[in-house]
Amino acid sequence: MRISELPEIGTKYEIESPTGDKVAVIFLATGEIELYVLEAGAEKPSVTRLTSEEARRVGSVLTGAMLTIEREDVEVSFSEISDLRINIHICPITEDMVGKSIEDLAIRKRTSVTIIALSRKGQSIISPPPETVFEEGDLIVAIGEREQINACQRVILGRS
Amino acid sequence: MTFMVDLGIITVSCLALGLASKYLRQASIPAYIIAGIILGKSGFDLISSYEFVQWLGKIGIILLMFYIGHEFNFKGIKEPGRLFAGCTDFFVNFIAGFSLGLLIGLSLLEAFILASAVYISSSAIVISSLIENKRLIYPEAETVVWLMVFEDIILAILLVVLTSTMSGSLAMIPVSLSTTLLLIVFILALVRRLSNFISPLFERDDEIPILLIFALIFGFSAIAHLLSVSEVIVAFFLGSALSGAKSFKKLFGATISFKNLFLTIFFFSFGMMFPLKFAVSADFVLALLALIILSILGKFVSGALIGKRLYDSLETGLRIGAYTTPRGEFSIVLLAVALGMGTGISELLVSLVVAYVIILSLIGSFFARHGDRISKVMVGSIKHFINHIHSTRKYG
Predict the structure, then answer these.
(1) Under an 8 A CB cutoff, do B137 and A38 touch?
(2) Which residues 135-154 of B are in CB contact (within 8 Å) with A?
(3) How many Å apart are CA B72 and CA B86, to the nearest integer?
(4) Is the pTM for the entire model greater than 0.80?
(5) How do strand A33-38 and strand A22-28 relate by DSSP bridges?
(6) If 0-12 CB within 10 Å is exposed, 13-18 middle and 19+ buried, where does residue B156 land?
(7) Closest CA in chain A for residue B152
(8) Which residues of chain B make contact with A26, given a CB cutoff of 8 A?
(9) What is the C-alpha to C-alpha distance for residues A115 and A112, in angstroms, rounded to an integer?
(10) Are residues A58 and A73 in the same domain?
(11) What are the sequence ranges of the domains in chain B?
């Protein structure tokens, strides 16, 4: 990625693919954003001008941030670390889990998923200790990679 | 009330011609100058107080230089080839203009002004055409933008040299030069010193920020005027001193609006004083033609040298030449500053530069738009020419 300041115009971010295609994003001083695509060997670039709102939408599609909001699943990724994606899963506990602690269920050991919060009768418990015993009506917030969340769904919650 | 009538005439005529130029996809600078020529001294003579309009125009130059100073940033100077590019652009075009000036019988001072006008491209036209013609992804766009920055640095130096040498006798030059430099240092130091006091004032939501900025601009201009230092130089360095203040960013947008308004009036005011009587003489037309051809060639030559050195490509170089062809605001500003400093400038030079800027801003924006095609055709014909020489050598 090349970054260059263009005085009186704005800032240019440029990336070239191994095949020679070029993509440039230019933040204009006016606040608008221009997206250039120049295919290798093409005479002229394709250019589109986006408002900052539109650019944000395109950007979040590309980075995958807030990619899926499916049921209670949220996938978050970070622009700084492009391959770090975290799924946050929110779901009610099943009857089988009532009366057992996080430790008893060995959630971390069996699925690598971490329970980061519990919602109990409208109160939230952040970072519940392993000995926390689930009660009926609890909502759990778990984080992990997509595969780990899927494993948790199968093994702990007994869903397919 | 006559001032009101003048203002009405100026704004309405500039609006009409400005809009027409935008619809025709042309540079608007010549439109405002032409509005001035039509309604001014050489035309219908409709302006009642030329002095009043010229004063408004002067504010335009001051705000333009303030703007340039604010945007000015020479961080990029260290990148490879940039110093070479800037210097090549300067030497080729300045020397070309200077020689032609002497050739047509101008004084040394006038030749210096003409050379500066020939050298300095119009940042406004060049930059807007880079954006409009979608050239920003190409590497040479960065070089072109850099050339505009380098020209701003040279412009500041040229203005300091010009105003110091024009301030009077030869013995006075070191005095006025040191006064100028001292005042610049004083402004830079004072703004830095007071930044803790000034910065929070810029963040207010009332009329104080805009008042403060104009108090700084006009206050320092007044001091400059009393010391017989050029106000535009002071405005330039005030702008660059304030570019460090983060809180000024928001307000800067408002000063740009003022700059745009008063700069339009400035172009009008320049057109309205344009002496048309020269434009009919054959000598004038010849000199103008020579000047136009030389300036176009000059930018192509400097562009080609830069392109060869930086990109190892003649075609890229010729594109740089085409993009930097437009001349405009700075050529006229330099002339206006020189005129404001005093005597020794002939009407011939004034009309030459004004006519030159009108023509080259139009030709220049055409060149900038079709830069890729023009450079391709030129490279093609150069190759053809070389082949032709080779073949005649073989068989002839």
Answers:
(1) yes
(2) 136-137, 141-142, 145, 148-149
(3) 15
(4) no
(5) antiparallel
(6) buried
(7) A7
(8) 136
(9) 10
(10) no
(11) 2-395
Report d(CA B259, CA B152) in Å as an integer. Answer: 17
Structural domain contains residue A160:
no
Identify the residue among B77, B130, B134, B137 best suited for mutation to test binding to A, counting A beta carbons within 10 A and taking the highest. B137
CB contact, 8 Å: A25 with chain B? Answer: no
Q: CB atoms < 10 A from the CB of A57, how many?
A: 11
For residue A44, list chain B residues with Cβ-Cβ distance below 8 A.
134
Last residue of a domain, one of A62, A89, A112: A62
| pLDDT, one tens digit for every residue, chain B (396 residues) | 588 999 999 999 999 999 999 898 888 899 999 999 999 888 888 888 888 999 999 999 999 999 998 887 777 777 778 899 999 999 999 999 999 999 998 898 899 999 999 999 998 899 988 998 889 998 899 899 999 989 988 998 998 888 888 776 677 788 888 888 899 999 889 988 888 888 888 888 889 999 999 999 999 999 998 988 888 989 999 998 888 777 787 788 889 999 999 999 999 998 888 877 766 788 888 999 999 999 999 999 999 999 999 999 999 999 999 999 999 889 988 888 888 877 778 888 888 898 999 999 999 989 988 888 888 899 888 888 888 888 877 664
The half-sphere exposure of B336 on its side-chain side, counting CA atoms within 13 A, is: 28
All residues of chain A having their beta carbon less than 8 Å from the beta carbon of residue B145 are: 6-9
Q: What tokens does B373 get? A: 């095609």
A43 to chain B nearest CA, in Å?
9
Nearest to B267 by CA among B127, B363, B166, B124: B124
Using CA atoms, how far apart are residues A144 and A147, in angstroms rounded to an integer?
8
d(CA B78, CA B108): 34
What part of A 42-81 touches B (C-beta under 8 Å)?
Answer: 43-45, 47
Provide the domain limits for residue A18: 2-62
Asked: is B2-395 a CATH 1.20.1530.20 domain? The reply is: yes
In angstroms, the CA B28 to CA B21 distance is 6
Determine the Cα–Cα distance for residues A142 and A128; give it in Å rounded to an integer: 11
Q: What 3-state class would DSSP assign to A14? A: strand
